[in-house]
Amino acid sequence: MKSNKGITLVSLIIYVIGMLIVIASVSTLTTFFYKNIDITNINSDTTTQYTKFMSIFSKEINTSGNKVIDTNIDNSEGGKKVSYIIFSSGNQYTYIQENKSIYKNKIKICENIDDCEFSWIYQDSNYVVSVSIKTGNIDRTGIDVIKYTMK
Questions:
Q1: Where does residue 69 fall: left (phi above 0), alpha (psi -120 to 50 degrees), or beta otherwise?
Q2: 115 contacts 132 by C-beta, under 8 angstroms
Q3: Which candidate, 102, 121, 91, places its Cα nearest to that of 54?
């Protein structure tokens, strides 16, 4: 009687096919995982830029005795929009569509902003400043515009 020690050719082929199926499944899952991680990084950068601008701008709005001097939206520079707001503290916030950035005076404070407009009205002896901003998945335009009341 013959001893059955070792692996037959049929069982070797079955092992190899099984391993290929496992490797293909793991690589497919890994690919989906890394693609989702990259999307998350893009979205978190958008959120970071939005949060950075809002925190700096809120500090300006809450400065005691600060008033709005002027705002303007200019579309004449080669079809590219430039929107700005100037405060009595001497700070000017400017959105330049050409490089999709917002500047405080001449310092870039955030980038990758798709659209931004500043406006204000004087209502009930207070300045009401409106900021319409759109970046990535954040859209605060139209009825969702951000309004600050300066006292």
A1: alpha
A2: yes
A3: 102
How far apart, in Å, are the Cα atoms of 15 and each of 11, 18, 19, 22, 90? 6, 5, 6, 11, 74
Q: Cβ–Cβ contacts within 10 Å for residue 60, how many?
A: 17
pTM metric for this prediction? 0.68
Per-residue pLDDT of 85-139, as tens digits, reads 999 999 999 999 888 899 999 899 988 888 999 999 888 888 899 999 998 888 8
Instruction: Count Cβ atoms below 10 Å from residue 115 Cβ, excluding itself.
Output: 16
Tallying the residues shown for the chain, one arrives at 151
CB within 8 Å of 12: residues ≥ 6 apart: none
Q: Helix, strand or coil for residue 38?
A: helix
